[in-house]
Amino acid sequence: MEQKKHDLLDIIHLIYVMDPMCSWCYAFAPVVKQLVAEQKDKMQFKLVMGGLRPGTERPLEAQMKDSIRHHWQDVEKITGQPFDYAFFERNGFVYDTEPGCRAVVSMRYLKPEAELKMAEAVQQAFYAKNNDVTKPEVLASIATQFGIAEDAFMEQYNSEEMKEKTQQDFTIAKHLQAAAFPSLYILNGTNIHLISRGYRPYDGMKAHLDRVLQQLSPDQNPL
Fold first, then answer.
1. pLDDT at 218
2. Which helix (H) or strand (E) holds 112?
3. How far is Cα 160 from Cα 176, in angstroms, rounded to an integer?
4. Exposed e or buried b per residue across 15-53, where buried means at least 16 C-beta atoms within 10 angstroms of its C-beta
5. Are 144 and 150 in contact (CB under 8 A)?
6. Most exposed residue of 46, 67, 169, 181, measured as fewest CB within 10 angstroms of its CB?
7. What per-residue string of b and e applies to 65-92 under the rule 16 or more CB within 10 Å gives b?
8. Vertex 170: Cα angle to 164 and 172 (nearest 5)
9. What are phi and psi of 14, to 5 degrees?
10. Which of 2-11, 42-51, 184-193, 201-210 has the lowest mean pLDDT?
11. SS3 state at 113
């Protein structure tokens, strides 16, 4: 038992705090996807929903629309990620990010290997296709891309357990002091190391991650 405990502490985790309705997380999607693929044999990956605007009730006002449009234009210019600007023709849209976050958490328990893919699919649906991902039926339709029946997804999504698990993610993000998304951390044993807060392109992100891993384990790290 003691040996198993030490083995668990030796595992390095890459923790990604994001929100599927955060435009800079959408910008970061190709970067984190590549990092996870490269590091899958060296560390475990953990996705945490940050909760950008959970529980929002008031519709978007003109000033907030202008601010969001500016962020989208910046992301598109820097990364080339596609956007459907017809979103800004919506009237009365309530920018509540809890449903999208809960959809990703639900996939975590329905099909863990598809969790990150679900987050990316929600991003694509919202930003590139102008789908309303605050609606459960839209999220259920997205889940079918990963072999999950709509009724099975809805049962999980609407459960009190998933609502609680989503709130737990928000709490973890606060404990990590993830004040901006995307945020990336390394968990080494019981020590947390901030790798990046905010968007970074792949080359800079990979180089910085390599430096941190070398510092953490200069003799054992195979990079």
1. 52
2. none
3. 25
4. bbbbbbbbbbbbbbbebbeebeeebeeebebebbbbbbe
5. yes
6. 67
7. beeeeeebeebbeebebebeeebeeeee
8. 105
9. -100, 115
10. 2-11
11. helix
Tens digits of per-residue pLDDT, 147-172?
Answer: 999 999 999 999 999 999 999 999 99
In this model, does residue 95 exceed pLDDT 70?
A: yes
Strand ranges across the sheet with 183-188:
44-49, 12-18, 183-188, 191-197
What are the φ and ψ backbone dihedral angles of 146, each rounded to 5 degrees?
-110, 20
Q: DSSP letter string over 140-186?
A: HHHHGGGT--HHHHHHHHTSHHHHHHHHHHHHHHHHTT--SSSEEEE
User: Residue type for 143, please?
Assistant: A
Is it the case that residue 4 has pLDDT exceeding 50? no
The CA distance from 85 to 75, in Å, is: 13
Alpha carbon dihedral 183, 22, 37, 147, in 10-degree steps, equals 140
Alpha-helical segments (H) within the chain: 2-10, 23-39, 62-79, 98-110, 115-123, 136-143, 150-157, 160-175, 202-216
- At position 150, the amino acid (one-letter code) is E
Backbone angles phi, psi at 45, to 5 degrees: -105, 135
DSSP 8-class letter at 61: P
